[in-house]
Amino acid sequence: SSHQEAQRGCLNTVGPQGTMLPAALEAARAQLAPSGVLRAAINMSNILLVTGGREAGAEPQGVAPSMAAEIAARLGVRPKLVPFAHPNLICDAANQDAWDIGLVGADPARAQHIDFTPAYCEIQATYMVQASSSATLADIDRPGARIAVKGGGAYDLWLTRHLRHAELVRAETLDASYEVFTSQQLDALAGLRPKLLSDLEKAPGQYKIVDGHFMAVQQAVGSVKQRDGGAAGHDFLRQFIEEAKASGFVQELIDR
């Protein structure tokens, strides 16, 4: 099914396990959740990691919210999910005291103010093209080509750095990027494979997804860089992610 195919877009790596000493845990708690509540920023536009709770007043559900709840439990504090419509809004709010941890794709452009853990999963980004197109991944970046993309996402940041010839046509939302691609008959639509798979169903037989991927978004847990250089919170999160991967906890959440 397309849902199972979407899940294959997540790839897990395994890291070493370790145990955190009480003093280090206390330091991490003081840095990440001094009020006794861990505010976790959740990217609501990620359909693979947030699979429910999008209606008004509902609690987000899925891999990312479950990861946040487990981090809070390990810290011994209460979780509070803070939903954001788009990942760039999470990153823009890094220095506004709006969240303590952010579950979002890691990117060098975002790492200026945010310390990221290693990825707990990665989601492939690729292109949708006309079904009649013979274009390969390498063919997309050519002079005169126009690519629709949702602005501000990790793959938009990557394309901005790496495209040599093609022009990016940015839209504010994922659905708007699809509309721009179809209505303006652009050469390609850039997006995460799970979302593109669902977009294919809107016009059966009209479009296809190019083989391979141009990058994979590294889904990670970020914490705001400390002005004093303190790393207790980041060290705790990094160790949690390595343990969560090694124990199979992340894979279990994905498989649910």
Description:
- This protein has 256 residues and is α/β, with parallel strands linked by helices.
- Helix content is 35%, strand content 25%.
- The protein has 10 helices and 11 strands.
- The longest helix is centred in the last third of the chain and has 15 residues, at 232-246.
- The radius of gyration is 19 Å and the shape is elongated.
- The two termini are 15 Å apart.
SSE topology sketch:
Elements: H1 2-7, E1 10-11, H2 22-32, E2 37-43, H3 63-75, E3 78-84, H4 87-92, E4 101-106, E5 114-116, E6 121-130, H5 137-140, E7 146-150, H6 154-162, E8 167-171, H7 174-183, E9 188-192, H8 193-200, E10 207-209, E11 215-224, H9 232-246, H10 249-255
Parallel strand pairs: 2-3, 2-4, 7-8, 7-9
Antiparallel strand pairs: 1-6, 4-11, 5-11, 6-9, 6-10, 6-11
The H-and-E topology, N to C, reads as HEHEHEHEEEHEHEHEHEEHH
Shape: elongated
**Total DSSP helices:** 10
What profile does the largest beta sheet have? 11 strands, mixed
- Percent of sequence in beta strands: 15-25%
Averaging pLDDT over every residue, what do you get?
Answer: 91
Please tally the β strands and state the result: 11
Helix content: 25-40%
Distance between the termini: 15 Å
Class based on secondary structure composition and strand pairing: alpha/beta
**Low-confidence blocks of residues:** 2-17
* Rg: 19 Å
Put the structure in a nutshell.
The chain has 256 residues and is α/β, with parallel strands linked by helices.
